Write the structure tokens for this entry.
Amino acid sequence: MIRLRRVLGRLLFVAILGSTTALNAQTAAEYAITHAKIFTLAGPPIEDGTVLIHDGKVAAVGSGIAIPAGAQVIDAKGLQVYPGLFDAVTQMGLSEVGAVRATVDTTETGAFNPDVVAATAILPSSAHIPVTRAAGITEVIAAPASGGFDSGGVTNLVGGQASAIYLAGWTIDDMVMKKHAALVVDWPEVETRSFDFNTFSVKEKPFPEGKKEYDKQVNQLADYMEQARHYAQAMQNPGSVNFQRDVKLEAMVPVVRGEVPLLVFADTARQIRDSVEFCDKQKLKMILAGGAEAWKVKDLLRSKSVPVILGPTLAAPPDEDDAYDRLMTQPEELRAAGVKIAFASFDNSFARRLGQQAANAVAHGLPYDEGLKAVTLYPAQMFGLDAQLGTVETGKIANLIVTNGDPLEVSTEVRYLFIKGKLTSTDNKQKELYEKYRNRPKASR
Amino acid sequence: MKITAKTCWLLAGVCAASLSVSPAKEKSAGFAADAPSPVILIRNATILTVSHGTIDKGDVLIRNGKIAAIGGNLKAPDDAQVIDGTGQFVSPGIIDCHSHIAIDGNVNEGSVSVSSMVNIADVIDSDDISIYRDLAGGVTTANILHGSANPIGGQTIVIKLRWGQPASRLPFEGALPGIKFALGENPKRSNFRVPGAQERYPATRMGVEETIRAAFTEARDYKKAWDEYNKRLAAGEKNLIPPRRDLKLDPLVEVLEGKRYVHAHCYREDEILMLLRVAKEFGFHVQTLQHVLEGYKVADEIAAAGTGASTFSDWWAYKVEAYDAIPYNAALMTQRGVIVSINSDDAAEATHLNQEAAKSMLYGRMSHDEALKMVTINPAIQLGIDKRVGSIDVGKDADLVIYNHDPLSAYAVVQKTLIDGRVYFDREKDIASRPALEKEKKELEEKLAKKPEPEKKAGEKKPEEKKTGEKKPEDKPKPPQAQLGQGGAQ
């Protein structure tokens, strides 16, 4: 309430003085980034510009802005300002050391886990968070059942809820941006080969058999959605004698109501086609994750307005017959077809390669601005966070980076990083070890 | 995207080690190289020589597969093929000091603690599409290693990525063969158990050391027996019975005699020093430490041993021994005088080693030229082939990459890759060949679809669909976490 009154007061002040003077000395600010080239992503870059940060938000952005008294000035001459990068699929905070089961909380057992929530198990003091931050990534989606080292052999259909988090905070409450950002669905695959642990060997299966099992799983998923829909209806009448609470189905309700999107992990053309048609029929909001063969069904994706979070462009193309640069040319092919794309690391320790993944798509035809937006604005749009994030604009949350160059380039340094308007350290475990061993006295022979 | 590059590659190792699944081969994309032109002139490009700086608007003349001249305004003979390099960058071919491509997944003979009797050279597969894809990433030479399932692993071989040539033409002529050693979690099977199987010795780092010491103690005695026999034979003794030939110990004797390089997979500082001590004790040299993610902690000791270090750019935290891995590792070791290279350990990672090397310009502020060395001349030194490759110098093999951009950038795209003065990868031709290849594939698929099938599949629409539903062994199976790490490639 107090904050609201303060904001209202300021609005009144602005109204009285007029908009031009509002940008002058009267704007309070904790930080002023000055003389920077600002890539707002909401218009052309601003040369020699200023960003004012106040109360966690961008208070002003432009050129010729007066610096309010008391603001900490960051002279960014020769430097560039961008929105912080957004990694749209990670296991951030859910996995520390991939090979050590005890440190991994990414994937539950069982087929249906709509009630488990990533934010519950995110470790705020994970060493991965500051390491990732140093690469200019200010927010991520932490997604359960999204791959990583412990994903093998698990047959989640509904993996759990993905949470959008800031990469800074003392507790998860500081970090959570959107606790229920999406529901993870691992779309089944037609398995013609499976691993048998009793004999420790691969078992071949004829296609019809694999297809039968696939159809069965898809039907299970459809049944589950149906149940959830009925449950949502029943919930409107909680006094009814027949109503029995079910926490799993309850977690599905915002999904069947279309309030929370499905984050569907699918790579093959069949998986994508089937999942898109499924969500269309069920009237579910869908975001495709992975999409190694999305180019094969681009028209369907466009016509159903399904956005795609693409897996690493630097991975091997899925098929031996694919062109060697298939995953690097795909982003532009999808964009040109009218499909909205974002990039994500789908990882934890490789999250810092996010910019590099985008740059390689740019090198293979994706317009540079689109590459930048695919790691900032577009993921924010997909998760309904673009009113707060994704561009450098007045009123948006000040998740910003100040770099010495292109943030997609591998040798670019992030000099300053802001999360929720706070100047946030880019120091981390790795920098500490570097400093420690750089200063090791020369070993005596 | 359930499987990341990292896991995919780990899984590949699992399949390889325990299952020996061979993917059904299809004729793949790409094309055989052009017949070699005896004389090629690359004109008006930025030449990154690595050995003697950068030449702006320079030319490189190639004659009979070797670099014949470097400089400005070189005259091309009439019969020369001229490649216009305007606006392009020419670098030496990328050398990957740690690769498992072109062996059809035969990475690990993991059944025994010492598998020195097996040889990667016996399983070279010239049809592996990874050869072509890595070539398209500028890689011209790769050190093909056995996996890391055993303290002493199999014999290894250096190849050139001569795509389209038979397997017999891939080995790098004259390059010393190697042998893989491995320390730490993989040989002690920390992250991997075959259900029901008995635990294999060693299960600790102590046991890893003893396995190596025991093997070399045996090898030393074996060598002595043969030396004695040969001496007596040379002295003219008659009716001598030779010692029994031991295929496990022969390669270790070659190590003791300096005829075979040791490439040792390692992570932690303690095990690095352990191996250097053991090597000193038995009088052999460790040619390279592979991965060596904690090498920065003992860089002086590595430098003093004259041992090379071949590491990852920024991998970490996939297991406990990689938790202290830092992307500054390469720069710190370089600063202390170690010859450092950046390797891939993975077919897809190899396609952008130039970018991986560039990361040291950020992490540790390495200079541009120093960073480029880590994927060219440094791995060449580590593999003992630096007189032949690794820099652009007159007399060296014409193994060159032409980029559209400075290679130490994420925006650099390889335009051409040459090996022995022959264009093995040409981006323009690759792109131009795609419609024909697609047409051919479609025709083959149609032919296949017309064949009467014993059981008609309901719900099958297009043959292409069926294909995407099928799994390649690289992607499948997905064993649970406890089984990962067996691949041991990393």
In short: The longest helix of chain B spans residues 205-234. The domain at 94-386 of chain B is CATH 3.20.20.140 (TIM Barrel).
